[in-house]
């Protein structure tokens, strides 16, 4: 199961990750980045990747924060430091940049906000997107629609994830 390290405080996030690893509770972590300057986010991510090392899978969610040029630079740096997955680095409306990143970066690019429906995912695939897709069950038209679409993508060798999209009050 994926655990989000989202305090933004590097030392605190490392300590939390170390604790969860030591307890055997989690080995996969997601960092929320994109709200700060690129260099700051890259330093934060690199420190966590180096601290947790080969014991953990580190993924980042950029939350559409970067323009195409920043996305290219940021994704190259994240890939070089060993991040396992980069979620929605550019605007959900910039399919061209998302497609380019998926083709140019070795690390998996996850389309999240860009895929509200199965048709959105189909359009991305038609444009050459080679990354993974995050389908949110409520947005995708329910459980049946959400499971039907990934089956066709898997036959094409593409990856999908599904999430219930729970919200706290």
TrEMBL record:
User: What InterPro entries would the database entry show?
Assistant: Enolase-like_C_sf, Enolase_C-like, Mandelate_racemase_C
Q: Name one Pfam family in it.
A: MR_MLE_C
Tell me which residues make up the Mandelate racemase/muconate lactonizing enzyme C-terminal domain. Answer: 11-108
As recorded in UniProt, its EC number(s) are 5.5.1.1
Coiled-coil annotated spans: none
Keywords (A to Z) from UniProt = Isomerase, Metal-binding
Per UniProt, what is one GO molecular function of this protein? Answer: muconate cycloisomerase activity
> What is the name attached to this protein's record?
L-Ala-D/L-Glu epimerase
